[in-house]
Write a structure and sequence with these properties.
Helix content: 55-70%
Radius of gyration: 29 Å
Structural class: mainly alpha
Shape: globular
Order of helices and strands: HHHHHHH
Distance between the termini: 97 Å
Largest sheet: none
Number of strands: 0
Strand content: under 5%
Length: 226
Amino acid sequence: MKTIALTLASVGSAAAFAPSSRQSASSALSMSSENKEMSQALPFVPRPKLLDGALAGDVGFDPFGFGGADKESLINMREAEIKHSRLAMLAAVGWPLAELWDKSIAGFLGLEPALTSTGSSPSLLNGGLDKIEPDYWVIVASIAGLAELSNKEVKEEKGKAYIPGDCGFDPLGLMPEDKEGMKAMQTKEIKHGRIAMMAILGYVVQEALYRLPVTDETPFFFKSLL
């Protein structure tokens, strides 16, 4: 009897030091689930609950919680982001082109240049917005209004199938028809838009600090290409 008890005790002691396959498997599953919950952009912090990768360009980056507390708020913020992205992409090209070509075009048409005294594009920090004709603002506001109306019609027509930022404008047919291709194209657009927003911020800060056109401050980016 004593021998049997000693044998069982030794077996129990050995089992205590042996790795448990069930425990290791559950630990692996736990670690796997934790990794899935981490932000792709910031792997050391958990991803925001609403950013589940369903939207194009979503890598779980929202450290300030701008996405809101529900899906509706998130979609509204995506609408705002894509619209600002598109404006920024236009501005990122238009800003330096104005500094390069405005004087030539104005001279050809017999008009006064719209650039500031330093040759910079008109802006809130650069000044010069008083040189812009009121007709220009009317045209810009009209185009923006038409875009918003078109966007509203598409949203009502598609209902739950609506994609944020879709205003039914694709004259060149660049958007693929398959779901995977559509998301890839949307990801490219939002990434280019985010870069453009940073570029515009760079133009503004650079010209405000140095009081020189961005095309003169960094000519290798602009004059070497145009």
